[in-house]
Design a protein that fits this description.
The protein has 290 residues and is an alpha/beta fold. It contains 10 helices and 10 strands. About 3% of the residues have low confidence. Keywords: Membrane, Transmembrane, Transmembrane helix.
Length: 290
């Protein structure tokens, strides 16, 4: 009886160990699969890697347009999806994970470091599938910045509901992946996620600053004009006719255009069709293609 009991527990132990081994093999195999798909062909200096988080469950048109527009000008890129993995996208954990910036940016940094991408590329773009980045203009700015200094720049409103576009240096990505704040104090927070969960921290930029990342100004030019443009949506009924009746004209975003730099870097809140339109206007009609 004792012998049978020992044999049963040994048998169960073997099953558990085998299951753990299979899961580990599956994880490492999946990681190697994605590793082999990544392109490490550095074509420009400084080199740029883009991470794009999908916000829609319908990937075909969005991904196709992004690949055919601004993503073809970075050195490499990877899509991430909170919905499901595919040939184009790596699966993010946790469903609505992409709406929580603290764990999202920490997880992306872990992924980049685990794939050894930081050994190849100098700067990293963290953005979403509704952004359009003018990579040529951005690369000119990054050429003057040391990628070994932990720096960041945020295009967009630090506390806005519209997803921002963030540019991080290699050193900044490594710092976020480590989870250890560069500032020894960090105001008592143990992680970037904790900082963003605190009501007193207010926004993403505040937490990056407290974490110890150095902010570089890519948001405005030397005249203080914005280098990014947010495509606002207006859905109020009869807005055009009512505005014309009151002011005599309808010019959507007049004040925003007056404060827009000629050396723009990004457009935010862009729909898939606008990706193609912007790319055509900026590169083909102006013959500004590399």
């Amino acid at each position: 009886m004792v012998f049978m009991s020992r044999a049963f527990f040994n048998y169960r132990f073997i099953i558990i160990c085998t299951a753990i081994l299979c899961l580990w093999h599956f994880y490492t195999g999946r990681q190697q699969s994605y590793y082999s798909k990544l392109q490490y062909n550095v074509k420009h200096t400084p080199s740029i890697f883009a991470t794009v988080v999908r916000q829609t469950a319908v990937p075909s048109d969005v991904i196709k347009r992004l690949k055919n527009t601004w993503l073809k000008r970075v050195d490499s890129y990877q899509f991430f999806s909170p919905f499901a993995a595919s040939n184009d996208s790596f699966r993010l954990p946790g469903g609505k994970f992409s709406q929580r910036y603290g764990p999202l940016y920490s997880w992306l940094s872990h992924w980049i470091v685990s794939m050894e991408v930081t050994n190849v590329f100098s700067f990293f773009i963290y953005t979403f599938d509704d952004a359009y980045v003018i990579v040529n203009n951005l690369r000119k700015d990054l050429a003057t910045i040391d990628s070994e200094i932990p720096t960041y720049s945020l295009l967009g409103n630090c506390s806005s509901a519209i997803s921002p576009t963030i540019v991080l240096s290699r050193a900044a990505v490594k710092a976020l992946a480590s989870g250890r704040p560069i500032n020894s104090n960090f105001d008592g927070f143990s992680s970037l996620t904790d900082c963003l969960a605190d009501n007193q921290a207010t926004n993403l930029c505040t937490c990056f600053d407290k974490f110890g990342l150095k902010k570089i100004n890519l948001e405005t030019d030397y005249e203080g004009k914005l280098r990014y443009f947010k495509m606002d949506r207006h859905f109020s009924r009869q807005e055009i006719s009512l505005t014309k009746q009151k002011h005599g004209y309808y010019w959507d975003g007049k004040e925003a255009f007056n404060n827009l730099s000629s050396n723009i870097i990004a457009f935010l809140n862009v729909n898939p069709l606008e990706q193609t339109i912007l790319d055509t206007l900026i590169y083909r009609l102006n013959k500004h293609e590399l």
